[in-house]
Structures are given as C-alpha cells and as structure tokens.
Amino acid sequence: IDRLQWRAIKAVIPTRGRLLDFGCGTGRFARRIRELGLSYTGVDTAFDLLRFARGKHGDSGVNFVYPNATHLPFADAHFDVCIVCMVFQYLSNTPRGETTLREIHRVLAPGGRLVMIEQASLSNRSSGSVAVPSTEGDYIRQLTPLFSVTSISTVRLGGFSKLTRKMIGLTARLRFVTSLMLALMARLEAVRGRRASLDLLRALAYYDIRILAVKK
Questions:
Q1: Taking the C-alpha atoms of 78, 80, 81 and 87 in order, what is their torsion angle to the nearest 10 degrees?
Q2: Is the dihedral of CA 23, 93, 5, 126 positive or negative?
Q3: What value does the mean pLDDT take over residues 45-59?
Q4: Mean pLDDT across the stretch 79-105?
C-alpha cells in the first residue's frame, strides 16, 4: 500500500520548492520527498507520532511541526505543494474539513498544487475506520470553492487481487520481502485499479483515489 501511495504522489509533485505534508504521521514520505530535491515540512496533531518522526528523521534536513488545531503556523503562500494522504477522509463533509481546506489554501502559493489520496465509495460503505464514506463528487464539491480539480484517478481497490494475496502469503512464509517483489505487487495493483470498471467500483466497499487540484 505504501508503494502504491508513493507512486501516485511522486508522479504529480514537482522536484523543487517547498512541500507541506499535512497529517504526516511518522513522516514515512519525508526522506523520499527530500531526496527528490524538495524542502519538506510535516505537520500532525498527534504529538507522539511527531516525536517518533523527529527521532527517526531528525538528521535528514526535514522539519516536523505540531500545529494549532485550527491554524497552520506558516505565512500565507509559503508552500508550493501540499500532500494529504488518508487524512481528509475523516474530515470530509464536516466544519473541520472546511477549516482545513481554507488553511491549506492560505499557506499554498498561487497556483500551488494539492495532492490528496483518500478513500472513496460508491456503495455507501467504507473500510470500517471511516464513519461517513465520501464519493468522488463529495470531494470535488468541497474543493471547488478554493481549488480547481484537475484530475482524479484510482490508486488501488479495496482488496488485493488473488495473485497479490498469494504473493503476500508466499513472502510471509519465506519471512522476507524483496524490493523487487514489492514493486511488482504495487505495479499489478496499480494497473488493476486503473482498469477497474464503474460497475466494479460500485460493488466495492471502498477504493482509494488520488485527487490533483490547483489553488485558485
């Protein structure tokens, strides 16, 4: 899943400028983003996760900030791109979600990119952790007042293929996973997601999408 998400993010972010990772958690993308040439800042309201991130990445030239609940501690137009991965799905269709989008809009430079990977559903179901599922249309509606949505694509389906599950089972028995095996599984699942029909998406409990938007 991490490989799939990183592939989707890497494909649409620039290789220079300032990047904000909103809801960064343990900072799992930090080192990879820094290696692309971007300045990295991660924010998260979970202090324990930020403490772990600082301990893990403290010497790699990245920055982690504990924000105010409703205000990001950055100047207007400070960042060139913002990524939000599996975070806004919990704020969607709520007043807090509206506040979050306004703050992200404020700290992005004119024309700045917003890249979101979030859970979507056409069946009114979810993975279980998301209380109120959102459709692609719900995300577009919430973003449109502040951003121009340029593309939406499927990152992965809500369950792995039989082949991927067999490969995961094999690596579990062998007790090792090579980078090549991970890359192959990610590629297979990415292709499967891109080729999914609307009927299949409607039958699923959920699927993950990448939303690319630009600040108006």
A1: 10
A2: positive
A3: 90
A4: 96
Report the 10 Å Cβ neighbour count for 144: 12
The C-alpha atoms of residue 167 and residue 177 are separated, in whole angstroms, by 10
Helices and strands in the chain, H and E counts: 8, 7
DSSP per-residue letters across 23-87: T-TTTTTHHHHHHHT-EEEEE-S-HHHHHHHHHHHTTTT-EEE---SS--SS-TT-EEEEEEES-
Q: How many CB atoms lie within 10 A of CB 186?
A: 19
pLDDT at 95 over 90: yes
Q: What are phi and psi of 105, to 5 degrees?
A: -60, -40
Report strand pairing: 18-22 vs 79-85: parallel
The Cα–Cα gap between 205 and 106 comes to: 34
Candidate ranges 21-25, 54-58, 67-71, 168-172; pick with highest mean pLDDT = 21-25
